[in-house]
Write a structure and sequence with these properties.
With 113 residues, this protein is of the alpha+beta class. The chain has two helices and three strands; from the N terminus they run βαββα.
């Protein structure tokens, strides 16, 4: 979860802070949407090469804004009917490949503040 807190004070600063928050929310939303697409592509490209997933399996990658300046990024898959041990190992490998890129993308958005 990514959380941003801003405190406002003063008469003229409130409009500037509101615009800043809108811009930051927009940039963070785009960065997380890109992360969703990247996760789906990573799972598809690595799963189709090795054992094919069950037809009822579903790749999950969802970004939800849960509050002011807060988002959740949920990723993984459901209804996998193959070897569960392999699935957990593959998940850890994919997270190892995915997490640094996603964190760097969020860091760049926050650094642009």
């Amino acid at each position: 979860m990514v959380t941003l807190e801003l405190q406002t004070s003063g008469g003229g600063i409130e409009g500037a802070v509101a615009k800043f928050k809108r811009d930051l929310n927009h940039r963070m939303g785009r960065a997380l949407a890109h992360s969703v697409a990247e996760w789906k592509q990573l799972v598809i490209s690595s799963t189709w090469v090795s054992s094919r997933p069950s037809p009822s399996s579903k790749i999950i990658a969802i970004v939800r804004r849960i509050g002011e300046g807060e988002w959740t990024l949920t990723y993984g898959w459901v209804h996998y009917k193959g070897n569960q041990g392999r699935a957990v190992w593959r998940l850890s490998l994919r997270e190892w490949m995915y997490s640094p890129k996603m964190r760097e993308r969020v860091r760049r958005v926050m650094a642009g503040v």
